[in-house]
Model the fold of this input.
Amino acid sequence: MHSKDSAKKEQLLITLKCFFGFEEVLADELRELGYDNPEILNRAVRISGTWKDVYHLNLYIRCAIAVLVEIESFYIQSEEDLYKRALKVKWTELFDVNKTFAIKGAIFSSIFKNTHYPFLLVKDAIVDQFKAKVDERPNIDVKKPSILFDLYIKDREVTISVNTSGLPLFQRGYRNAVGPAPINEVVAASLIRLSGWDRKQTFVDPFCGSGTLLIEAALLATGIPSNIERQHYAFKNLKNFDAELWQEIFENAPRIVRELPCKIIGGDLSDEMVLKARRNLRGFSFGRFIEVQSCSFEKIKVEAPVFILTNPPYDQRLQADVDTLYEGIGNWLKHDLTESKAWIISASEEGLKSVGLKPSKKYKVFNGDLECGFRSYETYKGSKRNGPEDLEIAEPEE
Done:
């Protein structure tokens, strides 16, 4: 497992972690990238692949927050078993003593009265092995470790993996200017894929803030990897890191486009946010093709039909109240944007009810710790059944 020559060939169990509710979305993305039969887990998807795939996925994957490689899997009967089995893992072949490390994960087992204790046992096993083999001990750094291990215990089954990403993959490296409540980049990418946007229809975010949804939409439409601006990956700190292989993958990634395959338009009431969005867009070759307008949502200059995906405000800092704002969004969709599709993510259930349109699809998702509704509204000219009378909204899918 640990020689550089094996990076291209050895089959590994690779687990990609994601946010709640986006497992199917991540599996769909992996299939699009050519990974057949992804196995869906809780907040994760598992595939098999090589170290080359690990490097490739860290760069290209949009809907995952980490790429884990399984090191060892075994069963235990007692707390002592965990230490003994962890001591057999070849830690000194994985990383150098001068690298810092940390262990995180999840414990669902009655074997341990204290859920912190398993992490201490594995840490002791790592340190004891280094002391025995090289007469030195590596340091622990919980905040910014060079090497991050993932410990997962369910009942008697233990899985130890190395987190090859390190810092979460939503830290893309492209967002220099942010607003007060930016949407998480991986959540943004996952919502765009979940929405079914065809990457051709005009994409509009009338509450664009610092531009995350606009950027993730453009990255998807152009095929430029979402992590193209990211510098740090924990796999670079492993002993088996193949710098030549990584350089080849990174240099072959698309990064320059001369046009967009569709129109992408943003808008925001705040001049300050519009400036931040434009600043973030400037870092990309497609930045100059994306129009960001400084105006309220109903004054945004677009021609229906369009595809709207947006994260309107829903907190107390609003000048207008949430119900009035969302009712206004519903009226705007009804009267100005017929034959269009709109997706709204919001943590305000009352706000979503105030839209006043019947959603054709509904999902429960999370943006950070906030539970949100993600709803789709389809507007038609006239009734679907009775000809051109009042505007109707698509019936919900069963």
Q: What stands out?
A: The radius of gyration is 24 Å. The domain at 4-163 is CATH 3.30.2130.30 (VC0802-like). DSSP finds eleven helices and 14 strands in the chain.
